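Cross-posted from the bioinformatics board.
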Amino acid sequence: MEKYIYMDNAATTRVKKEVLEEMLPYFSENYGNPSSVYTLGSKSKNAVEIARERVAKAINAKPSEIFFTAGGSEADNWAIKGVAFANRNKGNHIITSKIEHHAVLHTCEYLEKQGFRVTYLDVDEYGIVDLEQLKESITDETILITIMFANNEIGTIQPIKEIGEIAKSHGIYFHTDAVQAVGHINIDVDDLNIDLLSMAAHKFYGPKGVGALYVRKGVKLDSLIAGGGQERSRRAGTENVPGIVGMGKAIELAYEHLEESNKKLIELRDRLINKVFENIDHVRLNGHPTQRLPGNVNLCFEFIEGESMLLSLDMEGIAASSGSACTSGSLEPSHVLLAIGLPHEIAHGSLRLSLGDFNTEEEVDYVVEKLTEIVSRLRAMSPLYEKVKKEEK
Amino acid sequence: MYSEKVMEHFRNPRNVGEIEDADGVGVVGNPRCGDIMKMYLKIEDGIIVDVKFKTFGCGSAIASSSMATELIKGKTIEEAMKITNKAVAEALDGLPPVKMHCSVLAEQAIKSALQDYSKKHNVHIEGLEDFEPTDPHDHE
Ligand SMILES: Cc1ncc(COP(=O)(O)O)c(C=O)c1O
Ligand code: FES
């Protein structure tokens, strides 16, 4: 393939060169176990602590409040199960939303089986949680509010500051799955009243399989992984040193260049959206027009199905994703698209193009050109389009 | 994920389109994921002389429709009645397990179009007495 255009940066990103370079010595010459007392071990230990400082600084936390994990899913599981089991004597009620990542939703479902009660908040047509419903849902039994910072499918950014204030005023812990937000949005855990926050390095040009949970000092949290004394005895297991080093470098780079990167991404994003609307009819934008991640474009093309779009795009060397039922394995359309009120058949034609630092204007233009051809080819095959065209005549 | 054959039929689907004065038209829907397949038949002396389809669905659904039309074109009604979803999937060098239901849609589209023909032309077709395609609007 001569040309390969990667527009699935919400799924994962390419590790940046500078990040990889910092990681490499920790696979080879600096292979010591951070828990060992000899010099080789302390080299690793130091590297982990530098990374911890970098991660902490990025979200205005203290290094002692950062715990490394094996990614976003572990951080979400830990935060929610950990708070639930440690605070059971206070109450058994958890509040979340209908559009969370499965790492949160399936954890909540598991807790329901363990006797906890969970409220799943509705969202509006843009995917923003209903704050009134949130306030009304709070009871004396509520121990945790867990609402994602930004949605992975439609890119909608939640009113995190308001949620943080509501949680704080009721003395309830607030966890946010910020896996899609960290490295892309300025985050200050104090200003936003966040008690726990999940992140994953591979969403901001770091390596896969490494993440972190921020835990505000004083939060009562059970451990998820029992074993050795790593991570101040709260998360056992020999550290993924190269991964952690990469995460530290990646987060530092991301926030150093946040403004220029976002400016470029928003330009590319809006160019992509505008060009699609100029060239293709019967299309809608999912998510909020402005309160959205800088790189997120999520569209529904009526009368066609997402998987056939993805296959066609792949044939042109373009990588994207879809929330269509046919792509889901479970043959159910995305729960996020259903929660924003899309009918089944519209959700069927969903396409997510998530832009990143490596994308260019030329790529955006090329993608729109190919997409226009693909949509019209697939519509020519669609019995629904045929019907609509006849009705329009 | 898909065989070369599936991709080839997805890339260049055979017999896409409509037949204006079709002798039989069948529309079936996939209750599992909400896809729709429409098949048009032109029948002369018990032989399917032309067939066209339109499909709203995944790659496997499009390839299955394309293959199904190839398998029945030029065949007698009796021969077309014998085409199963397995035969469609095999002709495509197999489908992933989660995608087998897309080939069921193709088999049903053939039967539904033949049933329409049988009703319109008052021709009895063995095996279609009890055939009931799944409702295309039933999304479960
Ligand atoms: C919002 C959100 N939460 C959690 C996760 C899970 O992260 P990981 O794949 O690193 O476990 C993802 C990544 O897909 C995500 O986008
Ligand atoms: S038709 Fe939906 S999965 Fe194939």
